[in-house]
Design brief:
With 224 residues, the chain is α+β, with helices and mostly antiparallel strands. 20% of the residues lie in helices and 41% in strands. The chain contains 3 helices and 10 strands. It has helices at residues 3-18, 44-48, 199-222, and strands at residues 26-40, 55-63, 69-71, 77-79, 93-104, 124-132, 135-144, 147-153, 165-173, 179-193. The radius of gyration is 24 Å and the shape is globular. The two termini are 19 Å apart. The chain crosses the membrane at residues 194-211. Keywords: Membrane, Transmembrane, Transmembrane helix.
Length: 224
């Protein structure tokens, strides 16, 4: 067996043993129902078959150790800063962290949601905890062209626990300005770690790569 192969095995196991493994990313899952229809002048709720009592659910992938990001229409990604920024003063504080919308019930107009509205973004998912003298609020949000949704309550999402009830808002406009929106209540059913590839799977992939390289090398030497 080629000595390079043996050395590579030791290298990969050494890397697996010492490389830091992040367990910070979590999946938050919620289920509940709609409690209030704010308006349906745009007809989006009726079109989606939603009414008071309709079941709703949500899932977000969250990492409190990463900053929230926004993807612009040109594909560029911007990392959002907390408020106040270094050197600034004020009585409002906002912690912006990574939260990626995975699935859930929300409304949007198929035409308006594809418009590139001013100050909009191709993808705007995240989490925020903001405080001021008279209020505090934490949320995960999913916004786009002419629509937005969020799950929220009055403390930092990092301290939300399984069994907690959380509020929901989803609203959207059509191009002529008409609005549809609902509010709901959901329960945080599950907080789970994002699964990482097992060491056996990583090693299997590594062996396949090395084997193909070795076979190619031997075939080349044999003139095949």
């Amino acid at each position: 067996m080629n000595i390079k192969f043996v050395l590579s095995v030791f290298v990969v196991f050494g890397w697996i043993g010492i490389a830091p493994v992040s367990q910070a990313e979590l999946v938050y899952k919620f289920t509940g129902h709609i409690t209030q229809i704010e308006s349906d002048s745009a007809g989006l709720l009726a079109a989606a078959g939603l009414s008071i009592g309709s079941d709703i659910h949500y899932a977000f992938s969250v990492d409190f150790n990463r900053q929230a990001v926004i993807t612009h229409y040109d594909g560029s990604v911007e990392e959002l800063e907390d408020l106040p920024r270094p050197g600034e003063q004020g009585n409002i504080y906002a912690d912006l962290f990574y939260a990626d919308f995975l699935e859930g019930v929300f409304i949007k107009d198929p035409v308006a949601s594809n418009m590139q509205w001013p100050n909009g973004a191709l993808k705007n998912d995240g989490g925020i905890y903001s405080t001021a003298p008279s209020f505090s609020s934490g949320s995960f949000f999913h916004d786009g062209g002419y629509y937005s949704m969020s799950v929220f309550r009055d403390n930092h999402p990092e301290f939300w626990n399984v069994g907690d009830q959380v509020n929901v808002f989803s609203g959207a406009n059509v191009l002529d300005g008409r609005f549809s929106g609902f509010r709901g209540v959901v329960t945080l059913d599950q907080i789970s770690q994002v699964p990482l590839p097992s060491l056996a799977w990583l090693f299997g992939v590594f062996i396949m790569v090395i084997f193909k390289r070795e076979r190619g090398y031997l075939r080349q030497r044999a003139g095949i």
